[in-house]
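pasting for the record
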Amino acid sequence: MSSPITLCGSISRLSGLVGRALHEAGYRSLGLPFTYVPFEIADVAGALTGMRALGIRGLGVSQPFKEQVLPYLDELDPVAARIGAVNTVVQTNARLIGYNTDWMGAVRALEERLSLHGARVLLLGAGGAARAIAFGLRDRAARITVANRTGAKAEQLARAVGASVTEWIDALDVSPYDVVINATTLGQADSSPSAVELPVEGMNAGQVAMDIVYKPMRTSWLVSLEKKGVTAIFGGRMLLHQAAAQFELYTGRSAPLPVLEDALSRATAPVGP
């Protein structure tokens, strides 16, 4: 008799198949009776009610729902509670528990390229993903400066993590920083056009730039910086590591990282001639 299938998935405004490719490759590699379905939703409360009713084991949570899900959860992991945003919901004994693996994904992606201890980091954005990254950077003793289009949100995040604040202007000086991180949706394929631009001038070889956007995988911002000799960390690296952490929460097994990495490469490979 075959084992029952355990259902996992994701909730987002516009669903994609990359997360599904990573998780299901891991399930197949370890012979686990799990499957993964990306759900495109507008009703957060309804989605989590459905999660309870259907016995869904885990759901990844994308923007703009990372803070909206909080009132509908039974419990928050202590780290997620400090961050104030959730990107992963796990159902255990009919209780919905919120976690945040974004910070792990970002930190692990950055630490593949440099030590964060004492690094001067400019964090662009102050939303749910930016909060997760900021807490991860603080955990690694980086020196953080926050810039956001809404100054009040930048101030709020800076107070929470002991960071400084700089105004996000067209001529933002990025030269003093070792790392610049785009933690906004600027450059994302399905985001609204914006008059605000990500900084390019003033960045040079020896600096590191990371983008959390992975649709498209190679954002025009990072491509332009690569041409200047800047070390570019594309959004796929953060996606890979945060998905691996989710996989472990859902299954209780260590994620087969090389398998997930191969699945990511295949899922994001250019199509056509």
